[in-house]
Amino acid sequence: MHNKLSIDQIVELRNRMRNGTFDSEYEIKTLIRLGYHPDIADLLVSNVVLGFKDEFLNEVKEAKEASDKKEFFRAIMIISSVFNTVLGENNLFLTLIPVALAFVSGYFGFPEKRLLAIAGFVIGAVMMPFLYWSCLQNVEADLVRVIISAFVSFGPAILVKYVVSKLKKESKDL
User: What does the alpha-carbon distance between residue 13 and residue 8 come to, in Å, rounded to a whole number?
Assistant: First the structure.
């Protein structure tokens, strides 16, 4: 009689749970056919499921924290760019503050894609005051000017991040 699962069996059970093809009754019957006692087979499968559940909850918790951190740094970046745009009157010195915040936000907020985040945030921080004070001078409502300049400045930033990430992904595949 067996009383332990091998590492391969545990990995196989976890893979089935991740893929959504896990059926506990089927797994218990499979272990019984392999020579496990029914109670031990049930206990072993239950232990693997509970271990996977704890691991999965930790992964979800970490992903939620990372997502919250990204949203926080993204909000800081956009707010600083808007305040600089509205209050800075196209002052080059005041444009350096959101650029510095862009570096900090990209570095700490997006640890897996730091370079792309920094590039996108810097593009948005530099373009927004220029668009607000130069290109949209004829628009009368300030709120409309801010919204248009935010979308137009951070839109290409997102596009640049997307294109560079696709290029990096293709270069890894080669």
Answer: 9
The token pair at 68 is 């919250």
pTM > 0.85: no
Exposure string for 153-172, b = 16+ CB within 10 A, e = fewer: bbeebeebbeeeeeeeeeee
Q: How far apart are CA 65 and CA 62, in angstroms?
A: 5
Token pair for residue 83? 């305040």
**Long-range contacts at 140-146 (CB < 8 A, ≥ 24 apart):** 142/86, 146/82, 146/85, 146/86
What crossing angle do the helices spanning 24-33 and 38-88 adopt, rounded to 10°?
140
| 130-to-47, 104, 140, 174 alpha-carbon distances in Å | 60, 22, 16, 39
Closest to 45 in 3D by CA, of 14, 15, 21: 14
pLDDT tens digits along 59-86: 889 989 988 998 899 888 888 888 887 7
> Is 99 strand, coil or helix?
helix
Q: Can you give 101-116 as a three-state secondary structure string?
A: HHHHHHHHHCHHHHHH
Tens-digit pLDDT profile for residues 100-125: 998 999 899 888 888 888 888 888 88
